[in-house]
Specification:
Alpha-Beta Plaits, 2 domains, about 280 residues, about 25% strand, about 25% helix, 6 helices, 10-stranded mixed β-sheet
Length: about 280
């Protein structure tokens, strides 16, 4: 009995406590089947690449939780993840070591040890997306998969007027994908803006959470209004219909960027630079 107790104490003493780490991931979504690992196909995802690279640095299998899953082709400049590890590495080593094992279109921006109460998804207070539109008669060659191009010349003022109807708490059934699995279609948009940055039109939306294809469907409606094919009030009419079939075309994925997540100040995470970088902040 004494030997057993002594062995048990020794084993406990050699166990290494895990720490929780939060990381910021930036990625171009063009080559990936979205963020989330797919169990039933071999298509590449951002998550599987990140987990594989982190596992090499940690020297043990790593599974991560993200702030918000993004779809096929969608980009991220401030995707926050967390995981637990007993591995003793500096924050700099987590960043540089992981990036060494990642493809060039995925990059860890920073790493920070956080309290065990931190959860990348459930601790989030709000999320923010930017949808980037290039309105020009001629298609671009540079950043062709980094923006959404339309040959139509869009009326910025009409899009701004339409966007105002969507701010606040609403049932966004008309603005979510038919396959959306969220239990409730009600979401609160705390801020929505449409503005011009150089030759680009930016749809900038912050909300407590988003539905499947919600931003892309909003973009589709606003682009239709901007093209003069509907009046600004149509954004409200689509909202009131609570029917996806009334919502028009879904905007392409490659113009969409996940750019910010807000957390309680107690976690002191580095602030988002509000990408993508070519907008200049």
């Amino acid at each position: 009995m004494c030997e057993l107790a002594e062995h048990s104490t020794s084993t406990e003493a050699t166990q290494v406590a895990s720490v929780r780490l939060a990381l910021c991931v930036e990625y171009a979504g063009e080559n990936y089947k979205g963020w989330q690992t797919q169990k039933f196909d071999n298509l590449p995802t951002v998550q599987e690449n990140v987990e594989r690279a982190l596992s090499k640095v940690a020297n043990h299998p790593v599974s991560v939780i993200c702030a918000g899953r993004t779809d096929t082709g969608v980009n991220g400049t401030y995707q926050i993840i967390h995981f637990d590890s007993p591995a003793k590495r500096s924050e700099r080593a987590w960043v540089l070591g992981t990036n060494t094992n990642l493809p060039q279109d995925i990059s860890i921006q920073w790493a920070k040890q956080v309290d065990d109460s931190f959860h990348a998804r459930f601790s989030a207070l709000s999320r923010r997306y930017r949808y980037i539109i290039y309105s020009n008669p001629v298609m671009p060659a540079v950043l062709a998969k980094g923006v959404t191009w339309t040959h139509k010349i869009l009326n910025l003022k009409a899009m701004q007027d339409a966007a105002k109807y969507l701010q606040g708490e609403h049932d966004f059934s008309s603005y979510r994908a038919v396959a959306c699995q969220a239990k409730s279609p009600v979401r609160t948009i705390s801020n929505i803006e449409v503005y011009q940055r150089g030759e680009l039109i930016v749809l900038d939306v912050q909300a407590n959470a988003f539905l499947h294809h919600m931003i892309r469907n909003i973009a589709g409606v606003l682009m239709t209004i901007g093209a003069g094919e509907a009046e600004p009030i149509w954004a409200q009419q689509v909202l009131d219909a609570k029917d996806r079939r009334k919502g028009g075309v879904t905007g392409p994925a490659h113009g969409l960027y996940f750019v910010d997540v807000k957390y309680p100040q107690e976690y002191a995470l580095p602030a988002s630079k509000l990408g993508p970088f070519f907008l200049g902040g």
